[in-house]
Write the structure tokens for this entry.
Amino acid sequence: MDATNLIATAPLPILITNTEGVITQVNAAAEAFYGCSAAALIGTNIANLAYAESRHEQERALWRVLHTEQAWEGLLDYTTHEDRPRTVRLYLSLVRDQVGAVCGVAFFISDVNEVVVFQRTLQRERDRLEAILESANDAMFMVDSDGTVVTANLQFERLFNLHRYDVLEHPLDTLVDQLRAQPNLPPDFANVLLNFGSDRSQSASYEFEISSTPRRVIRWYSEPVHTYDGVPLGRLFVFRDATHELAVDRTKTEFVSLVTHELGTPLSVIKNAIEMIQDDQASALSEDGHEYVQIIQQRVELLETLIKDIIALTRIEAGRIELRRAYHPLNVALDEAINSVRSITQARHQLLEIELADDLPLLWIDRNRIAQVFTNLLTNASKYTHDGGVLMVRAARVDHLWELPEDSPAEVRLPAVLIMVQDTGIGIAPEEQARIFQRFYRAENARQRRIQGSGLGLTIVESFVELHGGKVWLRSAPMEGSAFFFTIPIIEGK
Ligand code: ADP
């Protein structure tokens, strides 16, 4: 096969021009690429085929090949029959006649448009990702599944005071060594990072302090990273400076403590005053006056419960709850609660039935906390029950699993005293029952009926019961009433 034949049948589009750039020969692949016949292409100047912006570059390439007599290679945008530019890789080489004189240039065209478009898209995606990482407030770095640091952002450099390019594409150990050398970081921090570096499944979140002035608190977490179809990519570490957040939190807690404390004093003065009015001047009060005093008393009691709940919640959140336990009979705590809800139940003409088993042992409890559990459950039982309804408190000793009600949670610790606070009220829809222990959650029926409340009472009930080692759960149906159960484990011989 001679050279002319080789060109004609080559799968690569090939054009040959004279030294002026006028096309003298094309192959079938070039006809297909440009979408026009050889006849239409031959005689045209090659400049017309290049996309407007690339024309000048092509002219220079042609000039260079002719004058330096060296081949040229480069990327160029070409106009095709699709009328859109396609990026091609162009190879230009001299064509000589039989006596060796330069008579033209051969253009070999490799269509790399798809590859270039794909590369550009990829680059755009990479730039976008990098921009997101760079503008994030959190410091981040990622190690791949081989434990090599593959990404780290600007905040990471700032937080750890090191250059990312010193650790990028290096094993995690290199980074860990640099962190170990920093005296203001906790000594075990680097080890924790190292341990997680090779772990593929665990999520973790921690907190540590940087000993600078002022001290900074850093919260961080680490998650394994997978592709959407589960192929492990490595592990991401994210660090957030929580110093300000914590300071605001502390100020908020201090403010809440101050306000609740300041409210407590006038409230007990009001309470005492009400009692004195009721004791001394009962006869002197008109019927309306008597009713008003009762309303004030109820509101004061609800306000008192709310304040206690807020104090308890701030302590629970700050992890500052300590139980002051001693051995007490259950009714000490119950009586205190009954006293604080009496005016509410009386005003609503609700009947309060108490049934405590005779064999209840002394319980190792913080009586004030258990009183608050009872107060919250009884206040709810009263609030969510119509006037004239019935509230019941029952307590019995449970030694064996089979003595527990069927719907008890599995993890109840025995022996225990099982307590039930039941009402004949509006009940709670089954789909909401799991959520009512969450902070601030109020069920639909409570909101619809505009029954006042904060959504804190049951959160506190659950925390206090669990702090005593017990469990709380409920059984309820709309319009059939509710029964709240809780257990207090029996701890003997303390
Ligand atoms: P709240 O201050 O709203 O009463 P709780 O945390 O004590 O807050 O209760 C959460 C929600 O659970 C209430 O808003 C109410 O919707 C529902 N709930 C609690 N106890 C009862 C009950 N005995 N009967 C009906 N609904 C109740």
Remarks:
- The first strand starts at residue 14 and ends at 17.
